[in-house]
Specification:
The longest helix is centred in the N-terminal third of the chain and has 17 residues. It is built from 3 helices and 4 strands; from the N terminus they run βαββααβ. By secondary structure, the protein is α+β, with helices and mostly antiparallel strands. A 4-stranded antiparallel β-sheet has the order 2-3-1-4, covered by helices on one side. α1 runs antiparallel to α3.
Length: 100
């Protein structure tokens, strides 16, 4: 299983940020071909650090998600929110709990 962690600083309009996050998560939830793509977003205790975690089962799942208009829109928003200054770390998950 592959994963990605994205972190950046954002102190702009919370409503705009939350709407973008919700739109992406809702699009993923509505896409049956993205059923094995999991996404979580958090705001750190400092109130400005944003942390995104994505997980997927196969390269094909990731390719499918990347090909969707909802992904392209969201990726552009994350770039905007971060001012282009985001940290992206990919990883292979070696072990995890049974639940997603």
């Amino acid at each position: 299983m592959r994963s990605i962690t994205i972190t950046y600083q954002y102190d702009g309009d919370e409503l705009v940020w939350q709407q973008a996050i919700d739109g992406f998560v809702n699009a993923l939830d509505a896409d049956p071909d993205a059923a094995r793509f999991s996404y979580q977003v958090a705001v750190a205790d400092d109130g400005v650090t944003r942390i995104h975690w994505g997980r997927w089962d196969t390269p094909e799942t990731l390719e499918h998600v990347h090909a969707q208009a909802y992904f392209k829109t969201f990726a552009a928003k994350v770039t905007e929110f971060s001012g282009g200054a985001r940290n992206v770390t990919g990883a292979d998950i070696k072990t995890r709990t049974a639940n997603w």
